[in-house]
Write a structure and sequence with these properties.
Alpha-Beta Plaits, 2 domains, 6-stranded mixed sheet, globular, Aminopeptidase
């Protein structure tokens, strides 16, 4: 029997030409489109309950779809998929340009999202969430970096390869509009698209961050997240504080007491063991390597209130390794919103009837978020002090009340070599490995559905880019280099 014919190895692209194409694409096509995108307050459903009536998510999805179709990429087909009552998804497919092998051909999935976080306060006087502005090679405004650029960069990376006639595997794009709400609509679409996704062997996700702007950074892990509202009710209406205080317990004091079950207020450590996990040895070693590269910038990059670069204010730790572990592999609690409190100017001498906090519980990558949400509810509600009415309602629906984190699979040799080569070619520095403290629900879902897929999770959210907060920006030089790097890795797919 004759041996099967060997397929040719992928042709290597001209990396200088990739960089030149990326620069041109960003300057001429992507940046103008992103400015229009930033100006649209397309807030995620969690922050805009009437998103369907407002039509802004539909607009940014429609605009992106029209832009992709206008590029007339050979072999690309696109459709916007809408299920009743659910946020829309863009699904595009680009035919493989490589000879067919035996079995199902491999597929690369390119992911991004178009929904945004709300405005937040504290923007610089000459900036605003919906007012795009380019300054010092940065595009300011909500959503450009997180993660509106992704679909445009992904399609431009494909175009860069086609401009050189470099072959590539089958590529599909999956662009959602519910990520900032925990991607609660995404499982429905993944189930509906499962057959059309095919044999996924590589996922390119451009919704992550970078340790600096000097090299390509690969995300090795993501934390999970449970958000929800903790509410303490003690009265049916507010009453004179002089009349009632000392007799009626403060709802805020009860709330603090309840939170003491969850968090050590002196150190910030979460107390229940179920919210922690054993940190894998290889991740600890990668964290040490990243800490050696970044040094004190790990904590000095934060906008400390008491002086620039920290000043007299100190973080929870100044050890770069411990700082990185704290923000990537350890659980944390944040209070991100309050209710039941009047503005300071309207705060009279009244004992308030209730206090409510919006909680954000970040979970280590290996902790199941749905189970954590159930444990959190029991912990906070049971045996309420003073028999007050204490409730915790986790965000989510249909028995899905949290976003589980993700720990990346081991890199295949081709993937590690391709990433390192792309970093050297377009950044002049080796690949960096770093975990992220944020959450991308899709990654865990895809890892479960396609366990042998390689994961290129990268992004433009480097130092001070401040996604979700004021003065969010997209670092344009980094985005251009990242786009070229994506093209190079796609071309290297075996």
């Amino acid at each position: 029997m004759n041996a099967p014919e060997r397929l040719p190895l992928p042709a290597e692209p001209d990396n200088q030409a990739l960089a030149a194409f990326s620069n041109s694409a960003w300057n001429e096509r992507i940046l103008p489109q992103l400015k229009d995108y930033v100006a649209i307050p397309a807030k995620s459903p969690m922050f805009d309950a009437e998103w369907e009536q407002h039509g802004l998510l539909d607009k940014v999805v429609r605009d992106a779809a029209q832009w992709v179709e206008s590029r007339k990429v050979p072999g690309l087909t696109l459709e916007v998929i809408r299920q009743p009552g659910r946020t829309p998804v863009i699904f595009f497919e680009v035919e493989s340009t490589r000879p067919a092998a035996f079995g199902t051909p491999p597929t690369i999935v390119m992911y991004g999202h178009l929904d945004k976080q709300p405005e937040f306060s504290g923007w610089r006087n000459d900036l605003g969430p919906w007012t795009p502005k380019v300054e010092d090679d940065k595009l300011y405004g909500r959503g450009g970096a997180d993660d509106g650029y992704a679909v445009y960069a992904a399609v431009s990376a494909i175009e860069a390869l086609k401009a050189q006639g470099v072959t590539h595997p089958r590529i599909v794009g999956l662009i959602e509009s519910c990520e900032e709400s925990g991607s609660f609509d995404l499982p429905v679409y993944l189930d509906a698209l499962k057959e059309r996704l095919g044999d996924v062997t590589l996922v390119v996700c451009l919704d992550s961050g970078a340790g600096n702007y000097d090299q390509l950074w690969l995300t090795t892990s993501l934390r999970g997240n449970v958000t929800g509202t903790l509410k303490v009710e003690i009265l049916t209406e507010g009453i004179h504080s002089g009349d009632a205080s000392g007799l009626v317990p403060s709802s805020f004091r009860i709330l603090r007491h309840v939170l003491d079950r969850l968090e050590d207020s002196a150190t910030g450590r979460l107390l229940p063991d179920s919210f922690h996990c054993q940190i894998p040895t290889d991740r600890v070693e990668q964290v040490k390597a990243a800490a050696a590269i970044l040094g004190d910038e790990v904590w000095k990059r934060m906008p400390w209130a008491c002086g620039a670069d920290g000043g007299p204010t100190l973080p929870t730790t100044t050890d770069p390794t411990e700082a990185l572990l704290n923000r990537t592999w350890r659980p944390t609690l944040s209070v991100t919103g309050v209710d039941g409190f009047p503005e300071l100017r309207n705060a009279g001498n009244v004992l308030r009837p209730f206090s409510a906090f919006k909680l954000s519980l970040r979970l280590p990558p290996l902790v199941d978020a749905n189970a954590a949400a159930a444990n959190l509810k029991t912990l906070l509600e049971d045996n309420a002090p003073y028999n007050a009415k204490v409730t915790f309602q986790a965000d989510g629906r249909m028995n899905n009340y949290g976003a589980t984190g993700w720990n990346a699979p081991s890199l295949d040799p081709w993937m590690e070599n391709a990433l390192n080569a792309a970093s050297h070619a377009h950044f002049g520095a080796p690949l960096g490995y770093i975990g992220q403290g944020g959450t991308i629900p899709l990654m865990n879902l895809l890892q479960q559905g396609f366990p042998r897929a390689q994961m290129m999770v990268c992004g433009v959210l480097g130092p001070k880019s401040n996604a979700h907060g004021p003065n969010e920006f997209l670092h344009l030089p980094y985005a251009k280099r990242l786009t070229a790097a994506v093209a190079q890795v796609v071309a290297a797919h075996p």
